[in-house]
Design goal:
With 167 residues, this protein is an alpha/beta fold. The chain has a single domain, classed as 3-Layer(aba) Sandwich (Rossmann fold). It has six helices and seven strands, in the order αβαβαβββαβαβα. It has a seven-stranded mixed beta sheet, with helices on both faces. It is globular and about 40 Å long. The chain starts with 11 loop residues before the first helix and ends in a 22-residue tail after the last helix. This is CoA-binding domain-containing protein. InterPro entries: CoA-bd, NAD(P)-bd_dom_sf.
Length: 167
């Protein structure tokens, strides 16, 4: 059964303000598989945003793996600094625990990826004074606010009202 949605998140200007005030992002649930949303979002953030981005995945960290040329940490507590924003790519039932970790660490924002919804997690974050965003994509929001959103999700560098022709 789908959870009834009663929580209301920040509006577009508030989300823009969150992104403007963010300097560091930790991606919890980072994957080394290029087909996964976390990998796609991380690739975008590293190439098209001003943020310092950290990856958290205990399984990859235990194997000593790097992803996109960067180290992977076992937990939020292992990061070299407290991230401003914790972006979560985990199952809905895991969200309250990850949000509590972000609260305990002193993060300012928890951002739960598209399709992620857990009102208990939102309540934990908001009770601690964090910004909470659910069921939204940081990549999409950043690109939308900064002019880089294209149908395929890439900034083509072309501003035109004409349909692009491919050879």
């Amino acid at each position: 059964m789908t959870e009834k949605r009663t929580w209301v998140g920040p509006n577009a200007p508030e989300r823009l303000n969150i992104l403007r005030n963010t300097r560091t992002i930790a991606i919890v649930g980072m994957s080394d598989k290029i087909s996964r949303a976390s990998n796609f979002v991380a690739t975008y953030l590293l190439s098209s945003s001003p943020y310092t981005v950290y990856f958290v995945n205990p399984i990859l960290a235990a194997k000593g793996k790097t992803v996109l040329g960067q180290p992977v940490y076992a937990s939020l507590q292992d990061l070299p600094e407290v991230p401003d924003l914790v972006e979560i790519f985990r199952r809905n039932e895991d969200l309250p625990g990850v949000v509590q970790e972000a609260v305990d660490l002193g993060a300012k924002t928890v951002w739960m990826q598209l399709g992620s919804w857990n009102e208990e997690a939102a309540a934990i974050g908001e009770a601690a004074g964090l910004n909470v965003v659910m069921d939204r994509c940081v990549k999409i929001e950043h690109a939308r606010f900064h002019g880089g959103l294209h149908l395929a999700g890439f900034n083509t560098g072309v501003i035109s009202s004409k349909r692009q022709v491919t050879a």
